[in-house]
Amino acid sequence: MNSNIEPYFSKNTYKTLHTNRIHILFALSFTVFINTFSFAQVESEDKSIEVPVNKETKTVIPPTKLNDSIVLPAEQLLTLKESDSTENDSIKPKPALLQATVSYKATDYNAFNRKEQKMYLYNEAEVNYTDMEITAGSIIIDYSKDLIYATGIKDSIGEYSQRPVFKQADNVIEPDSMIFNFKNKKAIIFNSNTEQDGMKIRSERSKKENDSVYFLNKMRITTAENEEDPEYYFLIDKAKLVPNKKIVASSAQMFIYNVPTPIIVPFAFFPLSKKQTSGVIFPSFGEQNDRGYFLQNGGYYFAISDYVDLAVLGDYYTNGSYGLRLENNYKKRYKYNGRLGFRYENLITSERGFPEYAKSTVYNLRWSHSQDSKSNPSSRFSASVNLGSSNYYQQSQNQVNTASFLNNTLASSVSYSKTFDGEPQVNMSLTATHSQNTQTEEINLTLPTLQASVGRIYPFAPKVGSKKGIIQNINLQYSVRGENRIQTTDSLFFKSEMFDDAQIGMKHSIPITTNFKVFNYFSVSANASFDEAWTLNTIDRYYDSETSQTVTEDLNGFDAYRTYNFGASIGTTVYGQFNFESEGEDKKIKAIRHVMRPSISYNINPAFDKYYDSYEVTDIDGETIREDEFSRFEGSLFGAPNKTYSSSIGLSLSNNIEAKVRDKDSTKTEAKKIVLLNNLNFSTSYNLAGDSLRFSPVRMSGGTQLFDNKMNVNFGATLDPYALDNNNTKIDEFNLINGGSLFRLTSANLTLGYSLNSKGNDNKSKTSDRSRTETLDSGGRDDDLFGRSQDFADQRYDEDDEKEEEELGDLYNYSVPWNLRLAYAVNYSNAQRQDEISSHSLMFSGDIEVSPKWSIGASSGYDFKNQGFSYTQLRFARDLLSWRMNFSWIPFSSRSSWNFFIGIKSSILKDLKYEKRLKPDQGL
After folding, report:
1. How many domains does the structure of the chain reveal?
2. For the chain, what percent of residues have pLDDT higher than 90?
3. Is 794 a member of any domain?
4. Which of 61, 223, 563, 887 qualifies as a FRET site for 53, CA 20 to 30 Å off?
């Protein structure tokens, strides 16, 4: 017990009361008399005697002092206030000493000593006043000095227990003892413990100045879970604490396991706001052999509002290179949310004057916006933008772009859709799209695309009842599509020249369809379609005899063409089942079910040769050599209409094979259904109007899932019935007649995707949601097969999210947690007898937890054709309780580098870190 408080306890001796009824009655009467004329004890019940053990709480309003020496009961004070002539005076009366009721209780006893003007509470004592609550083993309320003394008590074995707990609003302090002045609400607290926003604070002596300011002496601060034996802490001589806002401290020294370290700062500032606040983002540092030393991802975070924030980050290299990143997030609940980012880098290689000196600028713009479906069901706006320099991800050295290094395409889409309810319903959408090939640097844009459609109309359907027959099922609809398509390159992007070759057009379509049943088992559908295309881009072509060249001129002006076609199809569904067990048997495989869906279609596409013109090609003497045909719509957005009549029959067959097997769970009586083959499809066509090569190649595709749906298998092949000549050119002769097989395998492909782990059920990787979002926004894969986007210093990319704590024995479980993702792909080509594997690769990514605190991971692949490893990333992580350590290594490729990080997990102290990034020497 603190020496400052001991005197208040040493003067009191407690005695056991005798339960004599006559004495008690006399004492109560005398006490009532004294209260009426002398003391202002407000309670109607006498508090001058000790209450027997186990008597509970009594609520008391302490004495209220007037300016004179007379102390009156509360009832008389209220009466005086009503009749006071100064009530209307300009001078306001002084406020009462206590502005609210004081309630208290104790388990063993609560007693009031009138001579000392003190209330004694013992064992599980509690006092409540306004928003303040004090609980302790022993509490003394001194009304003469307006003080409350709270201490713990010693239990039967001499242990100090029931330490005081001081609560005010959301703040909780647990000292050894304390003194509280309920008049000015100041307090002195000894050996206090409190927690502020995850930060545990212990102070030898603290002073509560008011509700919002505490002064602390000899303070220890940590974020460790074990507060009694923390793995690290900061020892601070003096500090000022503003709860839920900040800590301003003098010199601070770090201790690791009670061992002092040379890490000392002259002053410290710790923000404690529960809301997001603006602040500095400390950079990470490293070295690159071609750019020198660098600082990366340092800047400032702006907490603009509860809905919008902004992070401004920058990179700087000692050879003059620099980078800029703007990251913005916004969200309005039940309305929309999105992310906007812009990245710019000015990259300088080597130093001026050296032969390898080079300078380039790259940029990237990303925007992702989604709308809550409940905000406006009839309209929707969404955006997914990823555009910029084609070589941005290849040249950028920033760690967060790691998983996007192998991207070959950038794609964007911004769309708005609106539905107009009615009969029929009208749908309209406006979309701007962008597609960019990072290898060829070719960019395709649509600015914008307009699409509108009117719902299906059944002109002959009955007003009530279902539609029956060929006539009642006739329906039509109208749709229109308009585009402004631009094709350009990186060098002309965002320049006026990019619009020079823009193509503008619009296409109207009116499809008419109907369907009906034949012989109850066959479904027949018939369709016809009328299309009209409008364009502002046409061409004219002629032969220039002077230059002996064909000249094509671009024409601007409105033009249109109309086309139509017809079609019909008939199909059915055939079910077959083979049972393996008879009645009374219980075999593992019970039955196999086969579902076939054959269909035959017929299509007619007329020839629209009226839209074609011809021009003569002459020799030097002016004589005609030949006539070439062309359509003025060849340069239009939707191309030229078909000039060749076609009449074709299409054949297709889809299969689905399932099996019924005995469930491993013996409590289940129903058989388990598993898929053997899903969508095994065959298709081909025969052109009735063709003069040669009438059969199209047979295309086969299929897929299935194995190992409890953990492995996805997809395959396909192309089979050509025609033979090749000696020049490997396809001829109008069947391969079977030419001495070969029925079909020639011209191409085949197989892809496998396998995801598994030690638990056998959860296939989710360790990638954090933020890291996955970063990869997807950059056009990457939704897995770790190309590596993981990581910025260890920025906890938005922290992969060590909250984990469920598991009970572990003394020895680590032999079943080591792990997860693995595989992607296998092989393609075969033999269209011209090359008989080669065009591509053959295996990609894999996985993590293994070698101990409860150690984990390692890798993302890599192997190219079997070129016999080499693909882009590889190795990852190591160590959980150091309050700290975390990460190491990422890209051992080879043009982006070979490593990154080491160690820092505190807590978001409050996350700037206390050490990070080192290095690009190894090119010779190694």
Report:
1. 3
2. 35
3. yes
4. 61
